[in-house]
Amino acid sequence: MKRSPGNAVAASFTGGSDGKGCGVVSYQILGDGALDGVWGYWGQDDSGTEKAVRTSGSGLAGEYDGTGQNPNGSPYKVKLTITEKGSGYSFAWSNSSSGFGVKRGSSVSVGIGGERCAFVAYEIKPDGTLDGVWGGYGSDKTGTEKATKK
Q1: CA 148 from chain center: how many Å?
Q2: Concatenated DSSP letters for 35-96?
Q3: Over 50: is that where the pLDDT of 4 sits?
């Protein structure tokens, strides 16, 4: 992706040889609870944006009205429902997209694309270390990972 909110970066991955259709959304959680995000898919050198304003709920869970821009510049509108699920959150968009996300501080990353798709959300530490949490679509469990520059 071309831009990532705050000090976070997220990446999509798959256990297979082809991750086509797998993607990730990386949102910054704003002070008023709105979500400001960027999204992209495996193997594509472009990204879209999405902003979502909460209409009900508290914390991260709730209902949102979203507006976005596809990589080709066309706008879209969507409804988003976020519910707690295990150690993360279930995301469901009105355009039939869904995913599993993890919240880290003031950011949340969501893996999308189907059961073979997974994602990792890294917090970029001041020394350049990547402190990550990973999860998979359709799961409610997460794991951790740390990456250090050599």
Answers
A1: 23
A2: EEEEEEETT-S--EEEEEEEEEEETTEEEEEEEEE-TTS-EEEEEEEEEEETTEEEEEETTS
A3: no
Residue 39 belongs to a domain: yes
98: domain range?
8-147
Amino acid at 79: K
The count of structural domains within the chain is 1
Q: Which region, left, alpha or beta, applies to residue 116 given φ > 0 means left and ψ of -120 to 50 means alpha?
A: alpha
Between 88 and 36, the more confident residue is: 36
Distance CA(100)–CA(90), nearest Å, equals 5
- Inform me whether the pLDDT recorded for 143 exceeds 90: no
pLDDT for residue 127:
87
Is residue 2 included in any domain, yes or no?
A: no
Is 20 contained in some domain? yes
Q: Tokens 């993607």 label which residue?
A: 23
Please classify residue 110 by burial: count the beta carbons closer than 10 Å to its beta carbon, then call 0-12 exposed, 13-18 middle and 19+ buried: buried
- Asked whether residue 2 carries a pLDDT value surpassing 60, the answer given is no
Total-model pTM: 0.84
Q: Collapse the DSSP code of 116 into the 3-class scheme (helix H, G, I; strand E, B; otherwise coil) and give the result.
A: coil
